[in-house]
């Protein structure tokens, strides 16, 4: 029995000399540093994701403008559709496109037919302009280059079908960067 106790003392002394682990405080400091670095990386990645989605939205609007130009080439005027869904159905009906783009965050895009002829309402053959709208995540101050081409006021002499009536100026939020509503006009 005495030898067992002596053997245990020797074993414990050897273990103390060879113990090369981390203390609980050292482990906590390492985890804290890793957490801070991960937070910085994730924050930067998150901003890039919003920028990528906004860039895609602008690309979607430009592609839709190209589809509308094809429609103009075939018929001499733009569609008189009053919603994105109606616009997609019309472009499908005439064989311009199978499907219009969808917002990456499942928000809505908007199409507003416009005319500068003065008729109220204009006949379909006088729909010679349009405005496309998307709601962006980036603000003009956080991403000024993204907003360089945004339309914020209705061009002179235009009348557009917005929210159920033909108007010659935007409401407060239609193409207002403060509401992050980006508009593309043609």
Query: What is the CA–CA distance across the termini?
Result: 98 Å
Order of helical and strand elements: HHHEEEEE
Strand order of the largest sheet: 4-3-1-2-5
Oligomer: single chain
Largest sheet: 5 strands, antiparallel
Average predicted local confidence, pLDDT: 85
Number of domains: 1
Let me know the number of strands: 5
| The first-level CATH class name | Alpha Beta
Summing up helix and strand content along with how strands pair, one would put the structural category as alpha+beta
CATH topology: Glycoprotein, Type 4 Pilin
CATH architecture: 2-Layer Sandwich
Structure characterization notes:
The protein has 186 residues and is an alpha+beta fold. The chain has a single domain (49-185), classed as Glycoprotein, Type 4 Pilin (2-Layer Sandwich), CATH 3.30.700. The protein has 3 helices and 5 strands; from the N terminus they run αααβββββ. The protein has helices at 2-18, 24-75, 84-93, and strands at residues 110-115, 129-135, 159-162, 165-167, 181-185. It has a 5-stranded antiparallel beta sheet, with helices on one face. The longest helix is centred in the N-terminal third of the chain and has 52 residues, at 24-75. The radius of gyration is 31 Å and the shape is rod-shaped.
């Amino acid at each position: 029995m005495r030898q067992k106790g002596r053997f245990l003392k020797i074993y414990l002394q050897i273990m103390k000399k060879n113990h090369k682990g981390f203390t609980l405080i050292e482990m906590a400091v390492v985890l804290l540093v890793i957490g801070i670095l991960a937070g910085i990386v994730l924050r930067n990645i998150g901003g890039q994701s919003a920028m990528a989605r906004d860039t895609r939205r602008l690309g979607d609007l430009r592609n839709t403008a190209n589809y509308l130009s094809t429609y103009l080439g075939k018929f001499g005027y733009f569609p008189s559709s009053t919603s994105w869904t109606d616009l997609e159905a019309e472009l499908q009906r005439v064989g311009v496109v199978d499907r219009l783009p969808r917002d990456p965050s499942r928000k809505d895009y908007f199409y507003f037919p416009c005319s500068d002829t003065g008729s109220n309402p204009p006949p379909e053959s006088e729909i010679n302009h349009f405005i496309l709208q998307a709601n962006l995540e980036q603000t003009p101050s956080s991403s000024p280059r993204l907003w360089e081409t945004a339309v914020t006021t209705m061009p002179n002499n235009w009348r557009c079908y917005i929210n159920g009536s033909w108007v010659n100026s935007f409401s407060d939020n239609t193409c207002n960067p403060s509401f992050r509503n980006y508009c593309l006009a043609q």
